[in-house]
Amino acid sequence: MGIKRYCALLLSGLLALALCGCGAGPVKGGAKTIAPAELTPEESALAQLLNVKLDGYRIFDFAVGKAGDGGVKSVQITLYELKDGEWSPVSQNRRALSDPEGRLALGFSKIPEGVELTFQSESLSSTLSLDGAVGGSVSSMTFATSVLTESVPIEVDKEVPLVVQIATTKNEIRSYDVKYFDMPREYDKHDYEHVYAITALFSEKSVFELAESAAPEGDKN
User: Fold this and answer.
1) Helix-strand-coil percent breakdown of the chain, rounded to 5?
2) pLDDT of 56
3) CA separation (Å) from 153 to 31, 113, 150, 156?
4) Which end of the chain has fewer CB atoms at under 10 Å, N or C?
């Protein structure tokens, strides 16, 4: 078993135990939110015991209400690369949701090397991957990563940017808040070789309907 896969499985176990112990964080009056997870000292100690290096993970708590309350049925995680001033999808993964809250973790150092994606809720435990393969080598490039740092409301069927990462040979990098995901041309004007983004979309559609809507017209049956 690969080291990354092994660590992701350990993380999945950690998140499961953490949720059983205290639940996800951002549930307030039924509001739909996603926020950086704040691990308790017990959770951090458990991570250390399981030898999970949390520095390589970005962990988020989400609250969406029950599947029949507000219409949230699924979540879609998308990895984008900036192409000609627009975000171009590189990889996607989707999971059905039936629990009112949960956690998701993104495990990566350099996005082009791949991203481990872990979901955890009361009835869901899943470890997947996002393929970040790009043409050419990025080993000599400098990376700058921006991550969601505050609780934000979830709007059904609207993407929430979680991570933006720049890879470039330039000596200076201007790193933007993830909110600039909606202004991709801000990144494009700096001529960075690669800019990536990872988003979460919580939807009232089923996983199948999401996959259908994401497919090119020629691929739909």
Assistant:
1) 25, 35, 40
2) 76
3) 8, 30, 10, 10
4) C
